[in-house]
Amino acid sequence: MTITITAFERSPDRGKGLARDMRVRWALEEAGQPYGVRLLSFKALKEPAHLALQPFGQIPTYEEGDLALFGSGAIVLHIAERHGGLLPEDANARARAIAWMFAALNTVEPPIFDRALARILERDEPWYEQRLRVLEDSIRKRLGALSSRLGDADWLDGAFSAGDLLMVTVLLRLKGSALLDEFPTLSAYVARGEARPAYKRAFDAQLAVFTAASPG
């Protein structure tokens, strides 16, 4: 059965690998699974056909036979459980890898994503500077704890796993920022993720969509 995912027709990240279909593309590349992509306009996201798959009108979605999933974390977990290469065989190590998946999306990502939104939507508001300080203090606490836990290891818990995949995609939103640069261990961790051949294939595939959609 052919796997089909959805992605932005014109991604707001301008091909930087930040849109959440990148997570799914990367997981499929790590698992060695071919897939097709259905590109959607922002208008199509709110139409009944897509809302039947994703009730919140977002991307990505995942379709395989009679299975339809939404939510990048849920999709990556499904891929990791169905195919090899993203979760350890040992039951305890597998459980820890899944815990890191949840930590990436529930603990580390929220203040990072809120900061990105605030920098776009709230710059002209009187509370902007205070809001940014609060968010960045929260991010530093998360990054400090994560850096301490990672230490001098290559990955979070032994071999590369779906936990690392999601954590790297979360941290990529800080790439090139002073915040991430404060934690060289994490900068190097992100670079290791980006160096993986599966990541490069996924990134190139997502970038090709933006390039094709760009005028000229």
TrEMBL record:
Organism whose genome encodes this protein: Sinorhizobium saheli
Q: What keywords appear on the UniProt entry?
A: Transferase
Ranges for domain GST C-terminal: 90-215
- From the Swiss-Prot or TrEMBL record, give the protein name: Glutathione S-transferase
Give the GST N-terminal domain ranges.
Answer: 8-87
In Gene Ontology terms, what is one molecular function of this protein?
transferase activity
